[in-house]
TrEMBL record:
Residues 13-239 form the Nucleotidyl transferase domain. This is NDP-sugar pyrophosphorylase family protein. It comes from Streptomyces olivoverticillatus. It comes from the Bacteria. Gene3D superfamilies: Spore Coat Polysaccharide Biosynthesis Protein SpsA, Chain A (3.90.550.10). Pfam families: NTP_transferase.
Length: 240
């Protein structure tokens, strides 16, 4: 909390780490997706996430586990963690919205705002800036927005069909949901017990103008680790 900003920045977070990660096989044959190591760091994705959250003022995290939960839980027990971590395990798949609601029930301070992130996102930007943006817009939920690079080269033409230029991996013209969120305390009650909040809760909040979108700051690093190619690219970017 700063003198000029009376808003209490969230100090608690949920990480959704229950996905199968089938597109990351064989890496995910024996571990959940967030336990896949970023090449060259010796640290799994979730380790990077917890370090980032702690650096942004988070003191408590709830990790929602599913697929191969015990591998993740064993690592958390043995790792030197920069914050308090609790795990919850879904007995049956609840969907993303149900999973969020289930995990949020274990947050230590239900009357305070909280962050959430998907367990396969590797990123670095100011969460406090995002929380301030959320507060200023009086939003119930705010999602980070990324502009990913298109994996193909683009071709630029003029109105006569002449090719003018080739652009390697240009940024997408569209913003996408970056998988990082700020939620007000009242958001939890709006989540479905099971199912996907992006089909139910988010559209409803959007209609009511209570959903905000925070564009990632220019130059902020963001990558979703979905496939083996993403791991390779992440390692290359790290080497730079």
């Amino acid at each position: 909390m700063t003198g000029t900003h009376p808003y209490p920045y969230p100090a608690q977070a949920v990480i959704l780490a229950g996905g199968q990660g089938s597109r990351l096989r064989p890496y995910t044959d024996d571990r959940p997706k967030p336990m896949v190591e970023i090449p060259g760091t010796g640290i799994p994705i979730i380790g990077h996430q917890l370090a980032w959250l702690a650096a942004e003022g988070v003191t408590d995290a709830v990790v929602s586990c599913g697929h191969l939960a015990e591998v993740l839980q064993d690592w958390l027990v043995s790792a030197d963690l920069p914050l308090r971590v609790t795990t919850v395990v879904e007995k049956e798949p609840l969907g993303r919205g149900g999973g969020l609601k289930f995990a949020a029930a274990s947050l230590p301070r239900p009357d305070e705002p909280w962050y959430a992130t998907n367990g396969d996102i590797w990123t670095r930007f100011s969460l406090r800036e995002m929380a301030a943006f959320h507060h200023e817009r009086d939003a119930t939920a705010t999602l980070a927005l990324a502009r990913p690079r298109i994996p193909w080269g683009a071709v630029e033409t003029d109105e006569f069909g002449h090719v003018l230029d080739f652009i390697e991996s240009p940024p997408s013209p569209y913003l996408i949901n970056a998988g990082v969120y700020v939620f007000s305390p009242g958001f939890t009650a709006l989540l479905p017990d099971r199912g996907d909040h992006e089909r139910t809760t988010f559209p409803r909040l959007a209609r009511e103008r209570r959903l905000a979108g925070f564009p990632l700051p220019h130059g902020a690093y963001w990558r979703a680790i979905d496939t083996a190619k993403d791991l390779t690219e992440a390692a290359k970017e790290l080497a730079r």
